[in-house]
Design goal:
The protein folds into two domains: 280 residues, no CATH class; 151 residues, no CATH class. Helices cover 67% and strands 5% of the residues. The chain has a four-stranded antiparallel β-sheet. It has a two-stranded parallel ribbon with strand order 1-2. Helix 1 packs across helix 8 and helix 10 runs parallel beside helix 13. It is globular and about 65 Å long.
C-alpha cells in the first residue's frame, strides 16, 4: 500500500510544485482547484517521461528508479514556488450570495461527485475492456512490464527483415508511448500488471480536467455558478464519461491536455504574464506525445498563438499570405510540412502523404448523414450540438466585442476545418460510417468548445449570478 500511495502522491506533488513554480502559489480555494488539476496532468506526463528515461531497462522497479527524481523535483519546485509568492487572481467582485444560488452550486458538485464514484467503481471492477485499449494501447506497456525491460516495436516489414529477436511488432507500433510508460509506473507500484490499477489515472484526469476548467473559467471572470454550470456540462457528457469508464484510450488525455492548454492561453491573453504563455506552449508541445492527432491540434493551437503575438492589423495579411503561399505550393507540385509526431508531411493536389500512416487520397465522400447522426441522434453528447449553434447565433455581438473569444473561435474553426477535410475528403470517412473514431476526434476539441460557449454566455442576463461566491 505504501508503494501505491507513493505512486499517486509523488507525481501529484511534483506536478503541483512545478505549476506553482511557474505561475505563483495559490491563495484561495478556487486557485488551488486549478493547481491540483494542472498539477495532476503535469505530474503524470512528467512521470511517464521519467519512467521511459530512467527505468526502461528495469520496468518492474520503476518506482525505485523514478521515485527519488520525482521527490527531488517536488521539493525544489515547492521551495521555489514559496519563494516566488502568491499568484494573481482576476475574480469578479463579490456581493452577498443568494441562498438558492449556493444550493444549486453545491448540488451540481454533489452530482459530479456521485458521477465520479460511479466511474471509479466502473474502472476498479473490470480489466481493460475496449478493443483499442488493450489491442492498441496496453500491449506495449504490458509487454514491457512483464518482460522487465522496454523492447523496441517496429513496423511489420522491418520485423520480417531483421533477425533480431528483441524486436517486436504490432499494428500500432508507431503510436506515442508516453501514457504507456505512465502505466508501467503504476504497475511497478502494484507489483504486478493490475489493469484496474493502471487504468485508475483515467478517473484522475477526468477530475483534473473539471477542477482546472472551473478554476480557469473563474480566472476568466465568469461568476461561480456559471463556471460550475459549464464544468457540469463538461463532466456530464456521455462520451467523455464512457472514455473514463472504459479506460485505456488516449483520447480522454488528449482532450484534457488540449482543453487545459487553451485555458492557460486565454488566461495569458487576459493577464499577459509571460510564464502563462510559456506554460500554454509547454502543454501544447506535449500533444503529439499523447496521440498522433495531437500533432495536428498542436499545429492549429500554435498557429493561433502565433497570431496573438502579432498586431491586429497584421493578422489579416498573414492569413491571406499563408493562403496564397499554400495555393502556390500546391500549384507547383506541393509542399512539405514538418509535424512533430508525424514527421515530414507532404501535401500535394489530391493527396496527403504522412510517414508511418501512408497516403490519403483527397476525394469527396458523402458521409453527411452519418456525421449528423454522430452529433444529433446518437446518445453521445446530450444536447450540446443543438445548443451550441443557438448560443453562437444569439450571442454574436459578444463574439464581436471580445478579441479573445474571436481568437478561440478561430482556433475551433481551424480544428473543425481539419475534421471536415478528414471525414469528407479522405478514407477516414469510414470512421464516420461506422461511428467510431469520428466521435473520438470531435471529443478532442469538446472541452475547448465548452470554454468558448461559456465565454459567450459570461455576461448574458441574470446579473445576480455574478454575486455568488460559494468558494
Amino acid at each position: 500500500m505504501l508503494e501505491i500511495l507513493l505512486a499517486w502522491v509523488l507525481p501529484l506533488l511534483a506536478g503541483m510544485g512545478l505549476w506553482q513554480a511557474m505561475l505563483g502559489r495559490a491563495r484561495c480555494t478556487t486557485q488551488w482547484a486549478g493547481v491540483v488539476g494542472y498539477g495532476y496532468l503535469v505530474g503524470m506526463l512528467l512521470t511517464g517521461a521519467l519512467t521511459a528515461a530512467l527505468s526502461s531497462g528495469d520496468t518492474q522497479h520503476a518506482l525505485r528508479h523514478v521515485g527519488p527524481a520525482l521527490a527531488l523535483i517536488a521539493a525544489m519546485s515547492w521551495a521555489w514556488s514559496w519563494k516566488l509568492g502568491v499568484a494573481k487572481a482576476a475574480f469578479p467582485s463579490q456581493t452577498p450570495p443568494h441562498s438558492w444560488h449556493r444550493l444549486l452550486f453545491f448540488f451540481l458538485i454533489l452530482l459530479l461527485l456521485i458521477r465520479a464514484f460511479v466511474l471509479l467503481d466502473e474502472v476498479w471492477l473490470r480489466p481493460t475492456f475496449p478493443w483499442d485499449a488493450w489491442a492498441a494501447w496496453a500491449i506495449k506497456p504490458k509487454s514491457w512490464y512483464l518482460l522487465g525491460y522496454g523492447e523496441k516495436y517496429v513496423s511489420a516489414s522491418v520485423w520480417l527483415a531483421q533477425a533480431d529477436s528483441a524486436l517486436r511488432t504490432t499494428v500500432t507500433w508507431h503510436y506515442p508511448t508516453l501514457l504507456g510508460w505512465m502505466q508501467v509506473w503504476f504497475a511497478s507500484a502494484a507489483g504486478e500488471w493490475n489493469e484496474p490499477m493502471v487504468n485508475l489515472p483515467w478517473v484522475g484526469i477526468w477530475i483534473a480536467l473539471l477542477l482546472a476548467t472551473y478554476a480557469q473559467l473563474r480566472e476568466l471572470r465568469l461568476a461561480p455558478l456559471r463556471a460550475m454550470l459549464a464544468t457540469y456540462v463538461l463532466g456530464s457528457l456521455p462520451l467523455l464519461n464512457a472514455h473514463v469508464a472504459l479506460a485505456g484510450y488516449a483520447d480522454l488525455w488528449l482532450a484534457a491536455l488540449f482543453g487545459m492548454a487553451v485555458l492557460v492561453w486565454l488566461i495569458w491573453w487576459q493577464q499577459r504574464r509571460p510564464m502563462q504563455l510559456i506554460a500554454a506552449l509547454a502543454l501544447g508541445l506535449c500533444l503529439p506525445a499523447i496521440k498522433l492527432e495531437g500533432a495536428v491540434w498542436m499545429a492549429c493551437f500554435f498557429s493561433i498563438v502565433f497570431l496573438t503575438a502579432l498586431p491586429a492589423r497584421s493578422r489579416r495579411w498573414l492569413i491571406i499570405a499563408t493562403i496564397l503561399i499554400s495555393a502556390l505550393g500546391l500549384a507547383i507540385g506541393g509542399f512539405e510540412l514538418p509535424l512533430p509526431g508525424l514527421g515530414l508531411v507532404r501535401i500535394t493536389w489530391g493527396e496527403i502523404d504522412i510517414p508511418g500512416m501512408g497516403t490519403l487520397l483527397l476525394q469527396w465522400h458523402s458521409v453527411g448523414r452519418e456525421m449528423f447522426a454522430t452529433l444529433y441522434s446518437l446518445p453521445n453528447w446530450h444536447l450540446l450540438w443543438f445548443v451550441a449553434p443557438l448560443i453562437i447565433v444569439l450571442r454574436w455581438r459578444e463574439f464581436l466585442r471580445h478579441e479573445n473569444i474571436q481568437l478561440l473561435g478561430g482556433l475551433l474553426l481551424l480544428c473543425a476545418l481539419f475534421l471536415f477535410v478528414l471525414f469528407f475528403f479522405t478514407e477516414a470517412s469510414r470512421w464516420a460510417e461506422d461511428f467510431t473514431s469520428a466521435n473520438r476526434l470531435i471529443m478532442h476539441i469538446t472541452p475547448a468548445t465548452i470554454t468558448f460557449l461559456a465565454l459567450l454566455l459570461r455576461d448574458a442576463g441574470m446579473k445576480n449570478l455574478s454575486s455568488i461566491s460559494p468558494v
